[in-house]
Design goal:
This protein is mostly helical and about 140 residues long. The chain has one domain: Four Helix Bundle (Hemerythrin (Met), subunit A). Helices cover about 80% and strands about 5% of the residues. It has helices at about 1-25, 30-45, 50-75, 80-100, 105-125; strands at about 125-130, 135. The chain has a two-stranded antiparallel ribbon with strand order 1-2. Strand 1 and strand 2 form a beta hairpin. Helix 2 (about 30-45) runs antiparallel to helix 3 (about 50-75).
């Protein structure tokens, strides 16, 4: 029970602070690298028997990161669909956290599929591969 209360407190604090960080101009590519790393950590946590604490931690981080993505695209203007992708991802990450802390592995995997599934749509619409390698935002 203490673990759940700590998770809730940290989540609320992060929800209040992260939009301010994103507004200060944190590099978007840094946010995306963290998203990719967190997705990888959650995938790894599902291997074998699964590690609920690692999945929950990854879910919390993803929820915060997708809030930053939302703020980034909201401030950019003209990318309402990207804002919506970010909101859907935040909601799925929150669902993942709930399943990881008090649900089933199957429920957590289904929520994780929602998180990772929303990434491709946004990437297709707002990311362009550069000839020299890497990507830029359209």
């Amino acid at each position: 029970m203490k673990r759940i209360l700590t998770v809730v407190r940290v989540s609320l604090l992060a929800a209040a602070v992260m939009p301010l960080v994103a507004q200060e101009g944190r590099p978007f590519n840094q946010i995306m690298k963290e998203v990719g790393g967190s997705v990888g950590e959650v995938k790894k946590a599902f291997e074998g028997q699964g590690n609920k604490d690692a999945v929950a931690s990854g879910a919390e981080k993803l929820e915060r990161l997708f809030k930053e993505v939302e703020v980034f695209f909201a401030n950019r203007g003209g990318a309402a669909d990207a804002v919506e992708f970010a909101k859907v991802s935040q909601s799925a990450a929150k669902e993942l956290l709930g399943e990881a802390t008090s649900g089933t592995k199957q429920g957590a995997q289904a929520a994780f599929a929602k998180v990772s599934g929303s990434c491709q749509g946004c990437h297709d619409a707002h990311r362009e591969k550069l000839p020299e390698g890497g990507y830029k935002i359209k």
